[in-house]
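ASSEMBLY PREDICTION REQUEST
Request ID: AP-0331
Submitted by: J.K., bench scientist
Number of chains: two
Total residues: 376
Priority: normal
Notes: Please return the full assembly, not individual chains.
Input sequences:
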Amino acid sequence: MPRIVVLRWGHRPQRDTRLTTHVALTARALGASGIILSDIEDRKIRETVNKLTRQWGGRFFFEMGTPWKEAVRNWRSTGGIVVHLTAYGENIEGSNVLEDIRGSMRDVMVIVGSQKVPREFFSEDISDFNVAIGNQPHSECASLAIFLYCLSEGKTLARSYQGAKIRIIPQKRGKKVVENKRFLSDDG
Amino acid sequence: MPRIVVLRWGHRPQRDTRLTTHVALTARALGASGIILSDIEDRKIRETVNKLTRQWGGRFFFEMGTPWKEAVRNWRSTGGIVVHLTAYGENIEGSNVLEDIRGSMRDVMVIVGSQKVPREFFSEDISDFNVAIGNQPHSECASLAIFLYCLSEGKTLARSYQGAKIRIIPQKRGKKVVENKRFLSDDG
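STATUS: Completed
Returned structure:
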């Protein structure tokens, strides 16, 4: 699997708190290595996400405040490609864009914007692919989820998380949770 | 394709406005016939969703205020099944739950809750299936998106919307939007 990093652009504190938190948790649950909240800081979200990662395991970084141009430039300089998720892009259904991205065998930065993104996001200077999860307006959280699901062909949904203090045992009925006493005691 | 209706449970006005709006738009874009906001009314969200449907086409109903038990009872009385999306349920990756749902050939109500749902949601009286989009905590919006995507095997993302006043022509670069003058003039 390629390494995947999500860049969240256009976050507005307060107004977007819950949505950006959902975007970050979706990135984590669907196999991304981390998220960059560009151009702005939001310590509350970082705390929520990092706390959840400590409990539920695995590695997931939360970076914030980096200017988006710098984040993209750094990523591209390491050979990674950039996918901009936008309702205006090539529809994953009815185009080969997913196959082209997978075929590149490169690491992927996924840019997730909000309603009005800078025009530059669409240009070759920034994005290698403009990808639409359908061409109807809906949700950046939904788009990210489906894109990451498709990229891994669903495999990331079944992976295990190293060092988890808590995990769910899937069941047909009811809730079953196992706590890992060893890791729990590490943390008090 | 079966008829799909989403039941959004536990919406809190203000706090959940944007997230519930995203859940509704995701339902619409991924092929649901409509959404029921149970137990509560939120006219602002209904207005946003209905306005978007008038512009972007297709049929999509927004019902609100119906007690969840009543909505589930009505649905079941017409022969539909109920799928409760929950991180505690059977993981779509590594179980046959999706095949079982598709194999039932029945219409599907999808219950999308928030953090703490009534215990009854897990029981046979309410849900036919408890389905997890992975067993990690993330987002009801992401879960709904992936579930609907899988149920239709992606096909709903390419469908056309009857009577659309505006639609996007997918492109590799930039934005291309077509306005349907005939439908535009119908509405002034």
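REVIEWER COMMENTS: DSSP finds six helices and eight strands in chain B.
SIGN-OFF: pending second reviewer
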